[in-house]
Write a structure and sequence with these properties.
Helix content of chain A: 55-70%
Strand content of chain B: 5-15%
Distance between the termini of chain A: 60 Å
Oligomer: heterodimer
Number of helices of chain B: 8
Number of strands of chain B: 4
Largest sheet of chain B: 4 strands, parallel
Radius of gyration of chain A: 21 Å
Order of helices and strands of chain A: HHH
């Protein structure tokens, strides 16, 4: 089944920038490459929003290093 | 009267002292006690305020920080009281550079710099920073600007423009630019 698509408008100068980068990316169309980049950005933002859990032992390793550097008492 | 507290944060060796110096030059005075003196690792000074290290137990210094810039280690930023508003400048730098610079500093302090292997530390720091950024982004009393130290050293104009937008147009941007000393960019990756 084909994925439903929507059009978006971007400035021509940005379109040209993306097009100029295509040759080293493996993508053949500006739309596919722009979709990929946007999906990556959104995925990173989602990860940033969720944060990451750090174990107590990892947290202690970092604190120990900060103390060794003189930044924590 | 300008009473915002500007918090400069990041990992040690990510450029927080440089940012403090830039803000000082630009017109935002630093909250510092000069207890930790300049040394070979930070020839222009640390711009630290020792009482910050006592967070969360000691928050009595916060009124002194109004209208000033204060350096708060990333580890401690979560302990800033939520009843105040902060403009947070979060310094980011390529992790291999941070680790290399920290190792030099630890050697000079007589500490073992290889207690945690570099690869493990890199992974730890990555998770740690992601977690802290998430906390800052979700805090309604914090507005954050993430500044790349590497970008700042390569071409400060873009970063300066972002800082001007973030802090207001009244800062002396020329003086802030002059405060950047490329000679102190000693631990480069690549």
């Amino acid at each position: 089944m084909m994925m439903e698509m929507q059009e978006i408008r971007i400035p021509k100068v940005l379109y040209d920038d993306i097009k100029a980068r295509l040759k080293d990316t493996g993508f053949t169309s500006v739309s596919d490459y722009a979709s990929y980049v946007l999906a990556e950005v959104i995925s990173n933002m989602d990860q940033d929003d969720k944060g990451e859990t750090i174990s107590d032992s990892d947290q202690e390793k970092i604190k120990e290093r900060l103390r060794a550097l003189g930044y924590l008492d | 009267m300008w009473l915002t507290i500007v918090v400069v944060t990041g990992l040690p060796r990510s450029g927080t002292s440089l940012m403090m110096a830039m803000l000082d030059s630009g017109g935002i005075p630093p909250l510092t006690d000069n207890i930790r003196q300049a040394d070979v690792d930070n020839p222009k000074g640390y711009y630290e305020f020792e009482r910050v290290k006592k967070l969360p137990d000691d928050t009595g210094w916060l009124p002194e920080a109004e209208g000033k810039a204060v350096k708060v280690l990333a580890e401690l930023i979560v302990h800033l009281p939520s009843d105040r508003e902060y403009k947070v400048i979060f310094m980011m730098r390529e992790l291999p550079e941070i680790i290399a610079s920290q190792k030099k500093m630890m050697k000079r302090r007589g500490e073992d710099p290889d207690k945690v292997p570099d690869a493990e530390l890199m992974s730890l720091y990555r998770s740690y920073l992601r977690n802290l950024k998430s906390i800052v982004n979700r805090s309604p009393n914090m507005k954050a600007l993430y500044v790349s130290y590497n970008e700042l050293m390569a071409d400060p104009s873009g970063v300066l423009k972002e800082l001007e937008g973030f802090l207001g147009g009244w800062l002396d941007m020329g003086a802030m630019k002059d405060a950047i000393d490329a000679n102190l960019y000693r631990n480069r990756s690549g």
